[in-house]
Amino acid sequence: MSRPSIRDRAWAAALVAPLVLFLVLFFVWPLWTMVTASVVDDAVTKVLPRTAAAMAQWDGNDLPPPAVQTAFAEDLRSAEDQQALGEAVRRLNSAVSGFRTLLSRTVTAAREAADLASLDLAAIDRRWSDPRFWRAIRDAVPPYTDRNLLAALDLKRDASGNITAEDPGTAANRVIMLRTFVIAGTVTLVCALIGLPYAMLAASASGLVRALLLLAVLLPLWTSLLVRTAAWFILLQQEGLINDALMAIGLIDGPLPLIFNRLGVIIAMTHVLLPFMVLPIYSVLIAVPRNLMPAAASLGAGPLRAFWRVLLPLAMPGLMSGCLLVFMVAIGYYITPALVGGANDQMISSVIAFYALGTANWGMAGALGLILLAVTLLLYVVYGRLSRSPQLPGGA
Amino acid sequence: MRSVRTLALVGCLSAVVGVWGSIGAQARDLTVVSWGGNYQDAQRKIYFEPFAKKTGKPVLDESWDGGIGVIAAKVKAGVPNWDVVQVEAEELTLGCADGFYEKLDWDKLGGKDKFLPAAVNDCGVGAIVWSTAIAYDGDKLKEGPTSWADFWDVQKFPGKRSLRRGPKYSLEFALMADGVPPAEVYKVLSTPEGVDRAFKKLDELKPHIVWWESGAQPLQLLASGEVVMTTAYNGRIAGINKSEGKNFKIVWPGSIYAIDSWVILKNSPNKDAAMDFIAFASQPENQVKLPEYVAYGLPNKEAANAVPAALQADLPTAPENLAGALALDADFWVDNIEELNKRFNAWLAQ
């Protein structure tokens, strides 16, 4: 065939259509939803349109003029869509705690009031005499916001709109984010240190030994995450097998703290993620001709030099993709750190899960996810430059 | 070439059909969702299976770990794939305010006066009363702790303790340890000074705390001797004493009890069957069977009175257990959980 006809091209496109459809449906669309959820801020204006319009008359100092208060009461009275009202309440309560009970009380009062113009909001709840609550409503009027993205980085806007740091002791997202990368990096390093020799061993063995070695590394993949984690608990606890054994042979006097700290998290995560390191390296090494090492030896290279100059460069593509896989998967962990970690081992996914599942604050969950994605992409580009591997886009 | 084209067409079509089929609503049997474990096994035996037998239609059951975000996602998807869900007090308050649940038909339930006042809600009816309390191993500690002050006293009771990771419960317990009487805990906690006071008290115990996350963990920690005392769910403690012959003790004064409720998700395709199921599970003659399996209190007054005296002593609703206990303030937590959780994380990271 010289040049493919349009028909042939159409058929070729149809072949990849399922893949494209899958990517759009399960990758592009959720990602886009996450981005919009974190910056779109129309929940309050949808429910309180009159209030939003009237807010222009208020300078943000003291209490808003009566016109704003009346518009607000009218909006609340005519709010029909309960789910939309719930969204607005969620948004406001996330800015200032207390809006939940405050608004449900005020909505009831606004619906029962005979005359809205003379309705005294402060009499319904004294919190309405606190400008903080009114300012929270005013801040929610613009259709887009950066407050979620800022909050994900422990930043906020002060009363005059400048970006400042959160008060010390009230936010820890940056610390937790950094910790996530440190844990993921450590696990990747440990996996590489164990995985490379292991893969070399498996690739050089044959028959039953190789099958057993591969089975041993695959087994954790087939076991439930919770079972594996519980098994580590039994092994690592104070009166666990490892501490008992070490004390019995007299190596230590008292039990070592092996669990409910960073060490426990690294051990348990390395165990779970090791297959993602071993398998890529193994698949590369298995294709390396076996006579290369003897050839290197015959040319005068010692075992170390032969490893350094011949085998390691050949294993590099596998090692690189193994590191990438392990690191990426490790970033998303949170059940294992939650079960075997200590107070300072929680990873960012647990914070994301808190917002997504615990409080349905998808804006905040999306913002944290977005920041995590951005930092990860940045690391990926740096990694691509450093590794100079032709397989990676961005590699030199 | 022809076969390749056919393959492409089939691939394309099957992808579309597959996606459509998984999204599209199908006739689905009544699906009831609860907390899993022993508790759900008991519910299956006394509620799900008898109800399926009575109506002649299968009842599917699933388990979940809570979270209003899960409910919100299900309801906003249009037609939810769950019908009846057992929710905690905050999820009831939040979801009812946000229109995630159907309103219950209280005539079918026999009237509001048949239930504990705290178990009555437009959107939900109480299913159980459960408690979070101090637990310790009676075989290891002859003289156990009797209060939160004891829980904080590492001189008198050396060793680690465990608490559930999160501000909820931890702050209340810290205030009680600091001498706040149970009845005033939420009053103190509603002020910024009260929150500071609770975190300051937690500071004292911080180096001695192992944080737990899932309900099975505190029992494991206690059984292995990793901690000397812990907070735990009362049903789990009674359960492990029975199933594994342990002698774990519960300290009832200062415990916090809460009510879990049955709700029906908005736009459930099995709304009527769901209402019938909730009515069935709320009837005194069915509810009274529960304490035999799990030590949870019953919100139906008639059922609560009919529980045999031997089982009564383990329930959070027994008068002597209720004295000195505190009811969870769901309103406080729906208002403050985000801010306090943020602060709690920052406090942990210090």
UniProtKB/TrEMBL annotation, chain A:
<feature type="transmembrane region" description="Helical">
    <location>
        <begin position="310"/>
        <end position="335"/>
    </location>
</feature>
<feature type="domain" description="ABC transmembrane type-1">
    <location>
        <begin position="177"/>
        <end position="383"/>
    </location>
</feature>
<keyword id="KW-0813">Transport</keyword>
<feature type="transmembrane region" description="Helical">
    <location>
        <begin position="355"/>
        <end position="383"/>
    </location>
</feature>
<feature type="transmembrane region" description="Helical">
    <location>
        <begin position="176"/>
        <end position="199"/>
    </location>
</feature>
<dbReference type="GO" id="GO:0005886">
    <property type="term" value="C:plasma membrane"/>
</dbReference>
<dbReference type="Pfam" id="PF00528">
    <property type="entry name" value="BPD_transp_1"/>
</dbReference>
<dbReference type="InterPro" id="IPR035906">
    <property type="entry name" value="MetI-like_sf"/>
</dbReference>
<keyword id="KW-1003">Cell membrane</keyword>
<feature type="transmembrane region" description="Helical">
    <location>
        <begin position="12"/>
        <end position="32"/>
    </location>
</feature>
<protein>
    <submittedName>
        <fullName>Putative spermidine/putrescine transport system permease protein</fullName>
    </submittedName>
</protein>
<keyword id="KW-0472">Membrane</keyword>
<dbReference type="GO" id="GO:0055085">
    <property type="term" value="P:transmembrane transport"/>
</dbReference>
<keyword id="KW-1133">Transmembrane helix</keyword>
<comment type="similarity">
    <text>Belongs to the binding-protein-dependent transport system permease family. CysTW subfamily.</text>
</comment>
<keyword id="KW-0812">Transmembrane</keyword>
<feature type="transmembrane region" description="Helical">
    <location>
        <begin position="263"/>
        <end position="289"/>
    </location>
</feature>
<feature type="transmembrane region" description="Helical">
    <location>
        <begin position="211"/>
        <end position="235"/>
    </location>
</feature>
<dbReference type="InterPro" id="IPR000515">
    <property type="entry name" value="MetI-like"/>
</dbReference>
From TrEMBL, chain B:
<keyword id="KW-0574">Periplasm</keyword>
<dbReference type="InterPro" id="IPR006059">
    <property type="entry name" value="SBP"/>
</dbReference>
<protein>
    <submittedName>
        <fullName>Putative spermidine/putrescine transport system substrate-binding protein</fullName>
    </submittedName>
</protein>
<dbReference type="Pfam" id="PF13416">
    <property type="entry name" value="SBP_bac_8"/>
</dbReference>
<keyword id="KW-0732">Signal</keyword>
